[in-house]
TrEMBL record:
It holds the Pfam family GNAT_acetyltran. Keywords: Transferase. This is GNAT family N-acetyltransferase. GO terms for molecular function: transferase activity. It comes from the Bacteria. It comes from Ktedonosporobacter rubrisoli.
Length: 243
């Protein structure tokens, strides 16, 4: 007689596999590297191609911890690095006492209902076009070429009385995913502009058939609040340890 695992085990397995796929896409987008399949708890980056600045990227996914090492890191050093990463993952971000060379992030995907409707977001923000270059230059002088590069699309902004107050774009883009970059003028914060721009950006990314990622420092509570309002939920907690 065939044995079938309980449904909750199958569901957890599927969720973990999806989270690992998302993590791989996220890391490849942010650091511009190529990862081998994440099929084991310990992974070594491919020796050929670009290498990241970090020695170790450790992640916690569905109560499982994963370690990704640069190939030039000696086996004798890896255990100590992972011990530091585990300690960081176990502590609240503001309570960790060994921050040297350690960065902590939260990687999120949009899976929940946003706190405002798309109709509301569309009344506040819109896609930017080449006719908006002057407004973008006033927003961030000298960065028009950066924002209007094809790799930054979709480009979304909030313009009030001819002035650009908030801009959302793809800070990283691959063939499968885009990572959000968003900036709001200090005097225009807490008005829902960043939320509206984020929602329109994510919708435009989805219309391309791509995954929209949101990542933030684990200590950036304002950014994480924005992510939550936009319907993003964490699929991984990450720690990097630099050289």
């Amino acid at each position: 007689m065939a044995f079938f695992p309980p449904l909750h085990i199958l569901e957890r397995t599927v969720m973990t596999a999806r989270a690992l796929t998302l993590l791989r896409l996220h890391i490849e987008a942010v650091w511009g590297i190529q990862l081998p399949p994440l099929t084991h708890h310990t992974v070594e980056l491919l020796a050929e191609g670009k290498q990241p600045s970090w020695k170790l990227y450790a992640a916690e996914i569905a109560n499982t911890q994963l370690a990704i090492y640069r190939p030039d890191i000696a086996l004798s050093e890896r255990e100590a690095l992972f011990a530091r990463a585990r300690q960081a993952l176990a502590c609240p971000p503001t309570a960790y006492a060994d921050p040297q060379h350690i960065s902590r992030e939260v990687a999120l995907e949009q899976v929940a209902k946003p706190s405002i409707s798309m109709a509301t977001a569309q009344r506040m923000a819109r896609l930017l076009t080449l006719t908006d270059q002057e407004a973008v230059d006033r927003f961030e002088p000298g960065e028009v070429e950066y924002y209007f590069h094809s790799e930054r699309r979709p480009l979304v902004g909030v313009i009030v009385e001819g002035r650009l107050l908030c801009i959302a774009h793809s800070s990283r883009r691959t063939a499968q995913a885009c990572e959000l970059g968003i900036e709001t003028l200090p005097e225009a914060r807490r008005r829902g502009y960043a939320l509206a721009a984020t929602l329109l950006w994510a919708d435009a990314v989805a219309r391309e058939g791509l995954i929209s990622f949101y990542s933030a420092s684990a200590t950036n509570t304002a950014s994480l609040r924005l992510a939550a309002a936009a319907g993003y939920r964490a699929f991984a907690q990450g720690v990097t340890i630099d050289g």
